[in-house]
Amino acid sequence: MKHLLFGCCIVCSISLYSQTFKFDKNKLEAINSSMSIEKLMGKEVVKVIKDSTVQGSDLPTYAKLKGIEFKNGTIEVKVLSRLVPNAPAFARGFIGIAFRVNDSNSKFECIYIRPTNGRANDQIRRNHSIQYFSYPDYPFDRLRKEAPEMYESYADMGLNEWIKLKIVVKDSQAKLFINDNKQPSLIVNDLKHGANSSGAIAFWVDSGTVGFFSDLKILNDK
């Protein structure tokens, strides 16, 4: 069992020893995005914005953590999202975690939230507050069409506030817990890349979002 903590520093467990180093750009790789290390509300954060030239949704648009191999375990992170100036009408503050990302960024699993939906007056939008997708074959619109309600859910949330996400992954299952809730807000029982998939972890955003990530903790189960 390996423990990794990300905040003002990163603690990585590698084989039989640990390495500690500052949270800096050299330990992250921006994929179809821009990335910076900043201070926000007294926290050291990773700021991520999707490349505006990238068209489409549910794509590899993230800051990828280097030197991490994740299959089963727990990922915790605090996220905060804002809308960019002149954000498109469909912008929802999309922000989340991609996991089991392969080296070529050609496949991964992802769970993200839409903070503007959490307190909308439209119940259908509320029901779409949380989303799972699997790149490249299962974007949200395919899943919504083929299996309505199975890969989306509701939770209370809003823009410009810290939201704690905890994703627990075991083989083909992933559970998302919001803030300190004891019960999951979303359960996915059939991760599309299967039980044996593994790979990196990444800070994911989509169109119209300025995303901030802090206090990452990883419990990596063998």
Explain what the structure shows.
The chain has two helices and 17 strands. It is mainly beta and 222 residues long. The chain has one domain: Sandwich (Jelly Rolls), CATH 2.60.120.560. Strand 1 and strand 2 form a beta hairpin. The termini are close together.
What sequence of helices (H) and strands (E) makes up the elements?
Answer: EEEEEEEEEEHEHEEEEEE
Topology-level CATH name: Jelly Rolls
Q: Give the averaged pLDDT, no decimals.
A: 90
Number of domains: 1
Strand content: over 45%
Strand-pairing-aware structural class: mainly beta
CATH architectural type: Sandwich
The total count of helices amounts to 2
User: pLDDT below 50 for ≥5 consecutive residues: which ranges?
Assistant: 7-22
CATH superfamily: Exo-inulinase, domain 1
Which term fits the overall shape? globular
CATH C-level category: Mainly Beta
Specify Rg, calculated over alpha carbons: 16 Å
Tally the beta strands.
17
Largest sheet: 10 strands, antiparallel
Distance between the termini: 6 Å
Proportion in helices: under 10%
Main attributes of the structure:
222 residues; mainly beta; Jelly Rolls; ten-stranded antiparallel sheet; 2 helices; 17 strands
In short:
Helices cover 5% and strands 50% of the residues. With 222 residues, the protein is mainly beta.
What does the secondary structure layout of this molecule look like, with pairings?
Elements: E1 2-6, E2 9-14, E3 17-22, E4 28-31, E5 33-40, E6 43-50, E7 62-65, E8 72-83, E9 95-101, E10 108-113, H1 123-127, E11 130-135, H2 140-146, E12 152-153, E13 163-170, E14 173-178, E15 186-188, E16 200-205, E17 209-221
Antiparallel strand pairs: 1-2, 1-17, 2-3, 4-7, 5-6, 6-17, 7-16, 8-13, 8-17, 9-10, 9-16, 10-11, 11-12, 13-14, 14-15
